[in-house]
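Mods, move this if it's the wrong board.
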Amino acid sequence: MKNSLHTLRPSSLVLRLSSLVLLCSLFTANSSTCNAQSTTGPVFAPYVDCCLWPPYDISKTDSTGICYYTMAFIVDDPGQTGPNPCWGGYSSYDMTWYQSKIAALRANGGDIIISCGGANGIELAYVATSPVQLKNAYQLVVDSYSLQSIDFDIEGMMVADTASVHRRSAALKLLQDDNPGLEVSLTLPVMPFGLTLDGLNVVTSAVDHGVDVGVVNIMAMDYGGVGDMGDWAMEAADNLFLQLKSIYLQAGIGLPDSLIWEKVGITPMIGQNDVPGEIFYLDDAADVRDYALNHKIGRLSMWSANRDQPCVNSWDPLYICTKIPQDTFEFTQTFLLGGEMNYCLWYAALQGITVQNGQTTCRDATQTITVAGNGTQFTVLDGGNVTLIAGRNILLLPGTKVDPGGYLLGSITTTGQYCSTVNPAYPALVANTRIDPTEFQGKAKEDLLFLMYPNPTSGKFTIQILTEARPEFARIRILDLFGRQVLQQRWVGSDQEEFTLEHVSPGVYVVEVQTEVAVGRKKLILH
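Not the wrong board. Structure tokens:
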């Protein structure tokens, strides 16, 4: 992360790609928009069944490690006329339900997605008689919970109900028009060959109506047969990618493969599925996690956080445990790589602020900082200094103003370094992301544990351990600059191994080698 300030010419915007730093120094009264985004990989947002008793406590991020939840399910209140959202069809679970726990989660840096629909209850889209009526019902949910993201779980008879499908699509377009930036995800049944025809129709309808579909989340579960659930989940995601690519091409929208992958979401049912013989094991979770990281999909989830624990009794119901041997939250930790894959996300909106002469301030957020907008102002006066540090996006909207002599620096962090602390969810492996190519040569004398060559590499490289005695075992881990693991492997009885990185984007990576007596780390350039 770059911390120094540079004086730029009037109205200039500089994006330093080598260090993922956005510098904005605006010397006119005109506002500008800067939108720099770093790829952080999938958000892990497990479902939580909000209608079980006692209520699952989403606020305990310290014990669960989960910062982002998909809360299920909002459906229609059958006791009222017209579409009226409530939780699980229970009138007593209105839009005040879970509010205190959500506030506590957000105070810890987390956030929520709320999911509408599900297998039970009556969908709002089925009850509504018009897109406007349906949009207003969704708007109540968005406003009540201050949502940045909303999900629609469409299954059973509803996935084939053409009238409600098109009504929902039209309502979602209206919803996004009135709520710029609101992420919409569609959660749909899947087979290993991909979405069913009905599911394809749901996505096509949304795209045709102009909905910005953020994620198509597949329910990788309950296929109706016996097989390897991890392999089937990855096969389904492969085919979903091809289906999405086709849908957007047919709509006349050409998207790069990387953006298509960001629209892919995977949700397995952990442990025993509803179908006898279908079991999603912990090693399946590890495989799907690695797949999600390597392909940089948009979302990884599971059904459900409530179930991520062993059963106490053989007769315990499936909705409270997995019915397989495991530790409590072991699936969560497997998906999270012990905290390396995901970190708490939060947002910052800087509005109605004036930074005075002589004032220096730093503002940060692990996802998005939004500056001004919606008729508000953010002004840096002559002699004022502002630093913005975000994990994903910095949005400078109309109303952003930097007077001559004022400075505004925006940085997209790749190391977890924010204004005053280092986010503990990031491994402290990278001290500096400003890259000096000579730094990667001739390091063997400084680190006598292992050699790594060729470096830079186009994909294949060799690791040679430099200990006098051949180690009994060694472990190799490769992580990107966000601390996400892209490869892990053990080898036994050898002091030299060749590796090949597949499906990995060019960039800088950290290679860690661990033997019985030492741990060494080096930087690897992949071009």
